[in-house]
Amino acid sequence: MMETYTPTNLRKNLFEILSQVSEENKSYEITLKQPSGPNKGVIMISKERYEQLEELDFLEKTGTLDMVLERMAKEKPDDFTDSDAY
Q1: 6: Cβ–Cβ under 8 A, 6 or more apart, which residues?
Q2: Engineering a disulfide at 49: which of 36, 45, 81, 84 sits with its beta carbon 3.0 to 4.6 angstroms away?
């Protein structure tokens, strides 16, 4: 489960939280109090995780992900060799 911080608590623990996000790939929710309606918070993730999500989004938008998953589902043991990978 993701830990949740208020902006005040985030400021108090900023260095520790940033270290955990970058070194341990932890994620945190930062709540932003709204006068009415749902919480409009933010999620703090590592740059590495962000780049992974951006790549996944790109693969989804271009249809590449569907093609890869389809090929993986139909893969046979002798379809690929180590020499094919490079």
Answers
A1: 30, 31, 33
A2: 45
d(CA 47, CA 24): 12
Residue 41: partners with Cβ closer than 8 Å, 6 or more residues away: 4, 29, 30, 31, 32
Map out the domains of the chain as residue ranges. Answer: 1-44, 46-75
Taking only the tens place, the pLDDT of each residue in 5-40 is 999 999 999 999 999 999 999 999 999 887 777 778
Question: pTM, whole model, 2 decimals?
Answer: 0.71
Instruction: Please tell me the predicted confidence (pLDDT) of residue 14.
Output: 96
CATH of 1-44, one of 2.30.31, 3.30.565, 3.40.1620, 3.30.870: 3.40.1620
